[in-house]
């Protein structure tokens, strides 16, 4: 989890306010003109104060040495008793000062002081710019998996984090983070969509190839049956009686499916099946029409099967097929002339 510990001036806020508690006064880095004029006077006053302090310290030391009953104690140094915050408006205790407190300790003390009474809460709300005593102390899971109340350190860190989440700095960072995540999600969606489209194109292409192979196999099979029946007809003698088998030139082989579009599609599809329909010879669409036009001529049909064998209904069907093939042949020849 990203560390979002607040960094909104807690050191300056705490140390400045504890130096003069009760005065919520923002201290300016620029000294006033009056402060500049009186600087030398304050330096003289400080020196006199130090002299009086040293004189008083020596007198007390002599009086204590004259009294053997008293236990000798170490006297505080000038640096320990001298508090510049009492007379210097721009003084801020540094890390090496005896009045310095680390940010964690400072905030923890101000937090529990604000929780103690309303006056402290109002004071520290003015210092930090927002209330710090409104957050309940939650429970956390320990190493044993049990819920327990947060320690003071954990609770202070929890409050600092909650306060930081209300600052402009955090809101700006959070807004940038959300914007970045949305942009990343948008790019990911675009990549996923492009990948899906690519896979869909591959699937459709494979499906098209599969259907094409299936159609080719179906046309090959239908053409093999069609040409096989014609081979049997030419090899056999003319039947004297009985029903004759007519191989109608459509993929289904049924007379009810005969039409100009079905016959044209059957011949062209057979031609496109890698030359299988044409046998060992290289034939064109015109060659196929020329051969079929002879096969389906009504006079040829009468010679092949005999007038006593062919019924009027079958003869009408053969005549209709011939007329369709003849029209296709005429169109093909006209196209070749152009």
Characterization of the model:
- The structure is a single chain.
- The chain has helices at residues 10-19, 33-37, 39-66, 78-81, 103-116, 118-128, 152-164, 168-235, 260-271, 285-295, 298-305, 312-337, and strands spanning 139-141, 147-149.
- It is an all-alpha fold.
- α5 (103-116) crosses α6 (118-128), α5 crosses α7 and α10 (285-295) packs antiparallel against α12.
- One of its GO terms (biological process) is negative regulation of canonical NF-kappaB signal transduction.
- It is found in: Nucleus.
Structural descriptors:
338 residues; mainly alpha; 12 helices; 62% helix; 2% strand; NFKBIL1
TL;DR of this structure?
The chain is mainly alpha-helical and 338 residues long. 62% of the residues lie in helices and 2% in strands. It folds into 2 domains: 10-28 and 35-162, no CATH class; 212-337, no CATH class.
SSE layout:
Elements: H1 10-19, H2 33-37, H3 39-66, H4 78-81, H5 103-116, H6 118-128, E1 139-141, E2 147-149, H7 152-164, H8 168-235, H9 260-271, H10 285-295, H11 298-305, H12 312-337
Antiparallel strand pairs: 1-2
GO biological process, one term: negative regulation of canonical NF-kappaB signal transduction
Main location: nucleus
Subcellular location: Nucleus
Low-confidence parts, pLDDT < 50 over ≥5 residues? Answer: 1-11, 14-35, 65-73, 276-280
Distance between the termini: 80 Å
Cα shape: rod-shaped
Mean pLDDT: 75
Order of helices and strands: HHHHHHEEHHHHHH
How many strands appear in the DSSP assignment? 2
Continuous helix count = 12
Total number of distinct structural domains = 2
List the strand order in the largest sheet: 1-2
Q: How can the largest sheet be summarized?
A: 2 strands, antiparallel
Biased composition (Basic residues): 20-34, 49-75
Coiled coil: 171-207
Organism: Arthrobotrys flagrans (Nematode-trapping fungus)
Main location: nucleus
